[in-house]
Amino acid sequence: MRTILVVTALLSGTAFASAALAQGTQAKSQDAALCADVAPDKAIKGCTAIIDAGSAKGMSLYDAHFNRGLAWSQKNDHVKAIADYDAAVKLRPKDAALLQSRCWSRAVLGRLSQALQDCNASLALNPKDPDTLEIRGFTYRKMRNFARSLADYDAALELRPDAASTLFGRGVTKQDMGIYEQGTADIKAARQMDGQVDARYIQVGVHR
Predict the structure, then answer these.
(1) How many angstroms separate the first and last alpha carbons of the chain?
(2) What's the pTM?
(3) Can you say whether the dihedral through the CA atoms of 118, 21, 39, 157 is positive or negative?
(4) In CATH, what number is assigned to the domain containing residue 153?
(5) Which of 62, 61, 131 is nearest to 103 (CA)?
(6) 139 lies in a domain?
(7) Tens of pLDDT along 147-203?
(8) Continuous segment of H or E residues that includes residue 63
(9) Measuring CA to CA, how many Å separate 19 from each of 165, 173, 176?
(10) Number of structural domains, the chain?
């Protein structure tokens, strides 16, 4: 699976690193190898060379735009990430992982209606993806639709109970709903699983 952010890939600390950036491609050129690198600056350099050239052996323009979008997202430049995701969507409009990634970047930027459309479209293609459920839960929370946010976090945790970022997000939503003790317990458990979970949520404007 390619993706972040989000959240589990984005917020889990592996940031798209758990998402092999060039899944399914055999990089046979220097630019393609760079574009597939998990280090964002290298990926941006390689992918940009491919995009500017219009092609590369072993790497499609779709892969180049998607990978560069993921790299921009790792650098928290979600405006540039979305521009690349938009280009990739034109080439492959029904890719669940791509739609999930654009949902995350749109949600972080507060483009919540568009984010929700992307997450819904991604889940229509892959209904049991815990990352997308988590990202949609994050989106619903920003929309202050706490009941739906909680439902998505619960569904994601049923599929992947040991995800610290999901547990933390559910705890925040529970606190927002006034279910304070349960929320605090979730956040405490998430911190025990992952000591960096707070820092990653702070990057996207969530403080507890």
Answers:
(1) 30
(2) 0.86
(3) positive
(4) 1.25.40.10
(5) 131
(6) yes
(7) 999 999 999 999 999 999 999 999 999 999 999 999 999 999 999 999 999 998 998
(8) helix 61-74
(9) 16, 26, 31
(10) 1
